[in-house]
Structures are given as structure tokens and as C-alpha cells.
Amino acid sequence: MTATIDRRVHLAAASSGPRPDARLADIAAKVDRGQRLSLQDGERLFTTPDIWTVIQLADKVRRRLHGDTAFYNINRHLNYSNVCALSCKFCEFYRKKDEPGAYTRDMDYVKNQVREAVENGATEMHSVGGLHPYLPFSYYTDLVSTIRDTARELGSELHVKAFTAVEIVHLAKIAKVYKADDRTFGIRWVLEKLKDAGLGSLPGGGAEVFDDRVHDEAYKGKIRSDVWLDVHRVAHDLGLNTNATILYGHIEQRHDRLVHMDMLRRAQDRALAKMGYKGVPPEGVEVSRCQGAKDADQNTDASSGHLGYSGDEGSDVPIITLTRPNTPLPEHIAFGSPSTPGHLNTSTPGYFQTIIPLPFFPDGSELEHLPGPAGLENLRTLAIARLMLDNFPHVKAFWIMQTLPMAQLMLQSGADDIDGTVVWYDITKVGGSSTHQEVNVWTLQKAIREAGFQPVERDTLYRRVERSGKSWRSV
Ligand code: V47
Fold first, then answer.
1. What is the model's pLDDT at position 302?
2. Mean pLDDT computed over 242-246
3. Which of 182, 204, 122 is nearest to 156 (CA)?
4. What are the domain boundaries of the chain?
5. Could you give the CA distance from residue 373 to residue 294 in angstroms, rounded to a whole number?
6. What separation in Å is there between the alpha carbon of 3 and the centre of ligand 1?
7. CA atoms within 13 A on the CB side of 278
């Protein structure tokens, strides 16, 4: 018999030794019960010197949700234009229209990218860009349908994950359907048109940090948190899944990160209620009756009052966690799981799939004088995101920004996903690297195995992929 050697160097076990922080005991008890952590708990997780216990707790939650599975995908990023009407201080990516280095891709370029993607077995095209002041609305529907149709002509499917909430609002303005007094109208109009063209989901960008002071200082002109959340709410109502990001380590405070996480999990409470999830009161006692989807549909604020208790801080939003034992993941409700096979129900509302903590890269930005966050802060922030966002099924360590070695540590600290093969990435260039940032599938799988997990290829919606060379299907 061959002995299996566990090659995982487990950070938490290796070093929880000398100074465990007794003040974390009640948080640990809440984590064991799958109970929602408060902002005060979050503050303690950020300030304790005992980062290893924080990591251990996040790892516990991650294993409860995903066991020893770690996800990756085969994808491509396509930045269609870096021309942007905004000048966010943290951003190194944007150019003004006639500035050297400004680019806008035409459909021939897009088709070539799709051909290469299909040739390499990709399942997803992730496409975002700046807020181009002059492109017509038809450019964006063409972009989406060109990706979809070119892939189909080549006998494949590419899931189109495209446009941040910021771009969606910009498109509503370009199409002249944006009404400040009825934001839902224009957002819905744009999303419906894009969905018809083949849009499959929204990426999580453009959220930055949900704080007005930080917003006005570092990304004035961008949509604020309420509008960002509106776009995602409307997308969910249309059955589109979305992701969320948090950009940290610049001029925000750690408290701002916690408020951001809290706003996201309350938005997810609403989305999951519409899927029929039951709420739990803060003490973790299950409410006996839940009218879930029906009530929530009748009132987009989910303020049905039928869930038997009020949510926190006086709102009527039910608290819905995924971290209690035997709670199904939303993708298993939407698509079925190996133990409960099902099929895609297109009328299922959408939800947030993953939180992606993005560490700020100062180089080349107007905030270049700031140091940016380093290793332990990155680990801690990701672990806290796993603990606070108890209703997000996935936490992604985006290896392009975190680096692959760091993503391995993050898999042991709460992350269950490292994104994909990527290939071209223009938004940040780690250590001055070029925009060509590609790893092959074998390298991703090896990194995951070395970290002690089983690599599983997923599609954009977190279904497992069965593959034979470049042919694949979601199961
Ligand atoms: O919104 C811009 C960030 C985001 C910098 O949904 C920066 O699966 C760090 O959202 N330092 C775009 N970050 C990337 C993004 C994303 C990435 C991977 C996967 C997914 C997903 C989404 O990049 C922007 C902004 O927050 N960003 N400049 C910078 N200097």
C-alpha cells in the first residue's frame, strides 16, 4: 500500500502556538454555530495579533462549505478599451482618448481573441473596459454577441461575464435611458438588451470601498455604493449571477472594509431570500416558517415581515447564512448537485457568487506614494471576508493580483477559488510584469495540490466541468 503524504504546510496549525488570543473565543463559538458575526467581531479579527486563529476560523468555514475542493477555471480576460472618462486616483489602467497607449478593440480583434480562447479550451470570456465617452451603445451589444456567436461558429460555448456595475450605468446614460429618479428602469433596460445579446453574468469590479469619504477622495465621479448595489439587485432579478470585489489597502480604514462587507452580505440576504432561503435570527435559532421567494418577490426590499423576526439594526431583511451545517449552496439549488441532480432553471433569481478581495497596487497610479498592503494584511483581509460574508458561497484569491504563491496560502485561509488561466490582464501588472500574465492549467492544478486541496475545474456559474481536451461540458 502506498502511504499518502499530506504535503500541506498548514499555516494555522503550524503557528497558532505561542499567543492565542482568548478574546477570540466567543467569535470561535459563533463560527462553530454558523452564526453571523457583528461589525465589532470584525474589528477584533482585524486588530488581534493572533492572525493564525483568524486564519484557522476562516479555514474551518471554507472546509464546511467546500471540503478539500479548490476551484479554478479556464478563461480569458478581454479589456475592450482603456479609454475612460473618469480619472480614479487608484487606477493605472485608464488613458484619455488621444493619449499614447490608448486603445479600443474592434470586432476583428475580438473574434481573434475568441478563436484563441476556444482553441485553448476556455469556458469564459471576462470583458471589462473604461467608460468610453464616444462608443455607441450598439458597440457593447455587438461585443457580447460577437463573443457568443464566434464561439458557437467554432462549435463551442463561451460564457460572457462582462461589464462592471459602473459600466452598466454608463451604458444606460449613453443609451439615454438613465433616469436619476428611477434608476431601476435604465439599468434593467441595458441588462435586458445585453442579456439578449448573450451576457451570462456580471463581474464584481467597480465596487472599490463603499464609503462616501473614500469615494470622494479617490474615485469621485464613479457611481456610489447605492447605485452599484442597485445594478446587482436588478441583475439578480433578471436571473443573472454576479460577483463582488473590495479594493483595499489605499486610503480606506479597516472599519470601512467591514462596513463594505456588511453592505454586501445584506444585499445577498435579499437575493437569497428571493431564492427561497430561510432566515435565521442573530442567535442562530431557526425561524419556523419562511415564505422566501414569494414574499421577497412582492417587495424588492424583502421587507415582508413574514420571516418571524427583524434583521439587524432595525431593518426587516432576514439574516441568511450558508455556513450552518447542511445548508445547500445556491448553485446546488439553481442547477442541482451531485447528490441532488437538477437542471438549470432559468427563472431562478441570481445571487452573488464570490467575493474577490483586491489588494491595491500603487505603481503608476496617482496614489503611488502609498505603500499598498503586504502579505499578512492580504491574508487577514481575505480570511475576514470569508468569516464576515457568511452568505457568499465562494471567496476568490485572484492569483493575478495576489500572486500564485500567495493564492496557495489563501486557499488555506478561507479561499476556495483562484480564478483561471487569464492570459492577458491590463488593469494591474504585478511587479512591473507585462500585460501577458498566463499560467497553464497544469500549473494551476499543481499549485492547488501543493496547498493540500483537490483541483476542480468549474464554469463561470460554479458548475463542475467535464473535459476531454478542448471539448467540455458543465455537469
Ligand atoms: O474594479 C483597479 C481594481 C477591478 C487597481 O468578477 C485595482 O470574477 C488594485 O473586478 N490596484 C477590476 N486593484 C478587476 C475585477 C475582477 C478581477 C478578477 C475577477 C473578477 C470577477 C473581477 O480592479 C477594478 C478595481 O477595483 N483595480 N486599479 C489597482 N491599482
1. 33
2. 98
3. 122
4. 47-474
5. 44
6. 42
7. 15
Decide if pLDDT at 1 tops 70.
no
CA 301 to chain centre: 22
pLDDT in tens, 343-383: 445 578 999 999 999 999 999 999 999 999 999 999 999 99
Q: Cα of 328 to ligand 1 centre, how many Å?
A: 29
Strand-pairing partners, residue 73, are: 420
- Name residues contacting ligand 1 (CB within 6 A): 90-93, 164, 203-206, 208, 243, 245, 247, 356, 358, 360-361, 365, 398, 419, 427-428
Mean of the pLDDT values across residues 28-34?
Answer: 96
- Whether the model pTM is above 0.70: yes
* Spatial distance between the Cα atoms of 197 and 171, rounded to a whole number of angstroms: 14
Q: CA 60 to CA 335: how far, in whole Å?
A: 26
Q: How confident is the model at residue 191 (pLDDT cuts 50, 70, 90)?
A: very high
Grid cell digits, residue 469: 481536451
**pLDDT tier at 284, thresholds 50, 70, 90:** very low
Please report which residue ranges of 125-211 form alpha helices under DSSP H: 137-153, 165-174, 183-197
Is it true that domain 47-474 has CATH number 3.40.47.10?
no
Atom of ligand 1 nearest to the CA of 204: 6
Residue whose CA is closest, atom 16 of ligand 1? 205
Which of 131, 247, 421 for mutating ligand 1's site (highest number of atoms within 8 Å of CB)? Answer: 247
pLDDT greater than 80 at residue 340: no
Q: Which three cell numbers stand for residue 231?
A: 445594478
**Whole-number Å distance between alpha carbons of 447 and 440:** 11
Distance between alpha carbon 392 and the CA centroid of its chain, in Å? 9
